[in-house]
Every structure is written in C-alpha cells, then in structure tokens.
Automatic annotation (TrEMBL), chains A, B:
Gene, per the UniProt record: hepT
InterPro entries: GerC3_HepT, Isoprenoid_synthase_dom_sf, Polyprenyl_synt, Polyprenyl_synt_CS
Necessary cofactors: Mg(2+)
UniProt-listed GO biological process terms: isoprenoid biosynthetic process
Organism from which the protein derives: Psychrobacillus soli
UniProt EC number: 2.5.1.30
Name used for this protein in its record: Heptaprenyl diphosphate synthase component 2
Length: 321, 321
C-alpha cells in the first residue's frame, strides 16, 4: 500500500500546505528562491505535515490556522536536511542533486538558516506562546542531538539508552512536536494533546530504529545511497550496538572503527550484522515502540483521523526501505 | 578613547548579560558546551547588547526583562559568525582558533543552529509578539543578505544601491533591531522607538562602510587577517565600486576578477584603490550616514543614554581598525 493512499482525504489540505511552503520560501533573492524551490521540489513524504493535520482533527480543525504550524515544522525539517548535506558533503539526496552540489556550501548554509528563520516567522502567527516554546525547544533538542551524535561516533562503549536518547532528539521529538502542535493549534483538550504527543514520540522512535535497520539490510538501490553508510561513517546504531560482541561481528567492527578494514570485509561486516541476533533484537525494540504508539491511538476519541494515525504508524514501522 | 569607557555605566548590566549568555548556551552535551563557551570567551565587543541596553533606557528600564532581548540578539550574531567560519573555512577569528578549526565543521554547523534556536527560546519570554516578528524578520533578512552577497560576487555591474541594500541586510538591520527591540522591551513610546530604530540603521550602514574601507587600507596586523581579503574573495565593496573605472584601478581589478592577477599586482590593486577618489567618496558616504544617525539622536528625549549613543556612533564611524 502506498503511503499517499493512507491519507487521501488530506489531499486538498496538503496541497494548501504545499502552496504555502512555496510562498514561505519566496524572497527577493532569485538565487535563494531557486535553491529553496529546488529543495521544495525534491519533495519528500511531507509526513510531518500529515501528522500535524491528523492531530488537528481532534480539535476545531481549520486549515488556515493549522498551516501556521504545519509549514514551520516542514521548514525546520528541510533546513536540517540542507545543513546535513553541507556537513556530509552529499552530492545527491532522493536522487536529486543537493543544494550544495548544484550551487555551493555557502548557498546551502544560508538557505538552511533562512528556512529556520522563516519557520519562526510562521509560528509567531499562532497566538499561543506555548506553541512557540514547543517549536524552539524542538529546534534546540534537534541541534543537541546532532552534536551528541558527533560525541558518540565510533564510541562502542555507549549504552542502548545513549542510543535511544540520541534518536529521540534526532527524530522522535520533531514528529512528537508535529502531533502536539497540530493538536494545540486546533484547541484540542489537554488529555488528547498528551496522547497525540506521546503517539508521535513512539512512532518517531520506531521509525528511526527501522531506518537504522534498513541502513544495514537494504541494497544501495533501495536506499538511494550506499548501504551501511551510517555504520561506515562511525554511527553506532541499535543493531550494531546489540550485535557488537557477537563473534562474527566484533573483530570486523573493531577493524572498521580503527580504519584498517578492507572493502570486502566492510561487506562481510554488514552481512554479519544483518544475520546477527542484534538485528532481531533491534526489530523487537522497534516493534515495542510501535505497540506503544498504537496503544496511545486507542485512547484517542473516535474520529476519522484515528484510523489514519494507526495506519501510518503501522506503515512507517513495517516499511521495507 | 577605548570603546568600553563609553559605556562604563552599563558595566554591571553587561555582566548580567554575559552571565546569561553562559546560561543560555549550557546544554546536556559536553561538546556543545565546550564549543559554545569557546565562542563566548572569544568575546567580541558585545556592541549589539550595548545598543539594546542604551535604547531600553528610554523606557522603563529593567535588566531582568531587557536581557530577554539582549541575549537573543547576541546569540544570533554569534551564530552567524560560527556559520561564516564554516563557509569561509576560517581557522582563526579575533586571534583565537574557530570552532570549526578546534573541532570540525559538523560541530560548528550545529553549534550555530543551536544558538539560533536558543535565541528564539529567549525571545519567547518577551510578552510582545511584535518583538518576535522583529527578531524573525531580522534573521530572515540576514540570511537573504548573505545569499545576495553570493549573487553579487565578482559582479562589477552592480550599483551603489545594490551595495547599500546588501549591507543593510548584512549589518544594519541587526543593529537597528537591537535598538528597536531594546526600546520595545522597555515599553518606550512609539515615536522614540522609531528614532532609535532609524539611529541603529544609520549607525549600522556607516559602520559597515567603514569596515569595508578598513579591509582595503589597514595592515594585516591591524585587521588580524590579510588586508584586502574581502576584495580578493570577490566581494565588491563601496570603495571598489566607486573606484572601479579609475585608470589605475580598472585593469588590475579586471585581472583580479578573471583570476589572472599576480601577488604583486594584488598589492598594487589595493594600493590603487587606497589612493583613489573612490576611497574618498566612500568615506563621504559613511559620514553622511553618521550625520543621519546623529540627527536621530538629537530628536531623542534627554537622558543619560543619549550622550552615550552619540559617542558610540562617533566612535564606530571614526575607528581606525
């Protein structure tokens, strides 16, 4: 089943968001417009705006007010992607040239900064200072997550808890904020806001664990980038952490971290992790987060969005690449 | 006269801001703390917080509320510096190693993003949504200014107006916002806010023109970086723009833009601009902005800060390096 079918009843509202994103990135600089539109057209699943809209359905839904939350959330996501590309020196993303490849690092840097600033401008339209706090807090945690990823790189003595805290910041918080802010912006009651916020958090955790599993088990073609690239960059993800002491994994992993591994052994390392117990355990933990997410959905009031949230959670946690 | 003497009566309040900046950059990541503190200790003149405080003296001055404006303004300035260093591949700034030199680009990138986000968190404490708009608008214009600088690079057919619009965004708007936000945060009357905002704008314009003049006329030692480095990077500043058609300048300038200039001729180019009529004209325009700034000060109500604003404007526009 295609993701888009899961939220076909949001189609016209997602088009409003899409148009508003184009308005948001419009400026007096032709170069900035080109770079931003390039990013916008690269698309992406707009999964965060989908969460915003669905969460907003539990309150007084009005696309005109909800968009002031959905747009900044997506802008922050876009900004973080373009900044990642500068750092990772990435030439392509989702099969398209990156901004830094098509223009240069300077353009990519300030396009990212511009998108952050635009996000803030949009959220100020929401007459709820708590919503502003949620967004700035989310941005802060995102950045801390990125820095902690640097600190934890190549560091095998980290715990599963370290990993979970890191992906919470890197991924789960923004999805959680999407749900929370959508609900807040539509004046949803506090109890429902809390369930939606937790739902987003659990879905985000499950989603990132799956992402880290796919980095190891997928083919280059499925990922659109070399398989295992996270691992080869020294990011210690959950399957690696669980598998690190297995006899088939440990020597190769140490060789990789010491930079003495051959290209063939890199592939052997990926294969060893792929068939390790660590992989099974990682899948189990992802599934536990999925169940927690579904449990939050159950406690939501009945409405048309409830089933959609359930389906998207299942979809995101079951995807193959 | 030392700049610090000009605002000695702000000393204790500037210490409050300094302490608050240290609190602001504190996070759960030791690496981020180190990088941020490194930036903080690199210092700088804190001229923007000074403008915030002085402008606030025209209303109901309370350091506890004003700091929620002064801190984000300085954080945005710091963030833009650390991002500039990533792009310019700068190893030192103000004689200290940059964050990107001491750690790496990834740390510098996300330290900058973190500081932006922290700035936003602080301003949400100010119960005035117009203040939030001013800050996000300022951030947006700063980024557009940086991108336009890329567009205008090596482009000799630009007008003086193009240059002025660029430095307005790059420099004047943040100083203008410092004055405006300081005044707003202390509940200053609308007319005074307007004079202070304009004052900041004119001072910022004068300041940046002087900065661009100094890039050409100073020695490497005075600047702490190679003289003429802006020009050699292809940034067409006001003295260059005014001097570009002079016979002693034009051929060397074209050779530089085409990348066919020798090291000796680079020095000859700088010398030719230094002694050109363009240099005189640039100084004149800087002075016009200074006079406009002083004219705004004149129209402010009499108080202790009035004289300080006047002195700082004179100081900034008369500095030798």
């Amino acid at each position: 089943m295609k993701l888009k079918l899961l939220y076909s009843d949001l189609k016209s509202d997602l088009e409003v968001i899409e148009k508003e994103l184009a308005v948001a990135v419009n400026s007096s600089s032709p170069l900035l417009n080109e770079a931003s539109l390039h990013l916008l057209l690269a698309g992406g699943k707009r999964i965060r705006p989908v969460f915003v809209l669905l969460a907003a359905k539990f309150g007084n839904y009005s696309i005109e007010s909800i968009k002031n939350v959905a747009v900044p959330i997506e802008l922050i996501h876009m900004a973080s992607l373009v900044h990642d590309d500068v750092i990772d020196d990435a030439e392509t993303r989702r099969g398209r040239e990156t901004v830094k490849a098509q223009w240069n690092n300077r353009v990519a840097m300030y396009t990212g900064d511009f998108l952050f600033a635009k996000a803030i401008e949009y959220i100020t339209e929401v007459q709820n200072t708590y919503a502003h706090e949620v967004l700035s807090h989310t941005m802060i945690e995102l950045c801390i997550g990125e820095i902690i990823q640097v600190e934890d790189k190549r560091f095998l003595d980290q715990t599963v808890r370290d990993y979970l805290r890191r992906i919470k910041r890197k991924t789960a918080i923004l999805i959680s904020a999407s749900c929370e802010l959508g609900a807040i912006a539509s004046g949803t009651d506090a109890k429902t806001v809390r369930h939606l916020k937790l739902f987003g958090y659990y879905v985000g955790m499950s989603f990132q664990i799956i992402d880290d599993i796919l980095d190891i088990v997928s083919t280059d073609e499925q990922l659109g980038k070399p398989a295992g690239s996270d691992l080869l960059q020294g990011n210690i993800t959950l399957p690696v952490l669980y598998a690190k002491d297995e006899p088939a994994v440990a020597p190769l992993l140490h060789a990789m971290l010491e930079g003495t591994i051959s290209a063939t052994d890199q592939q052997n390392l990926l294969k060893a992790i792929r068939y390790s117990d660590g992989m099974t355990k990682a899948k189990q933990l992802s599934n536990i987060y999925l169940q927690k997410a579904l449990n939050e959905v159950k406690q939501l009031p009945a409405n048309s969005a409830k089933k959609s949230l359930q389906n998207i959670a299942l979809f995101m946690s079951k995807r193959k690449f």
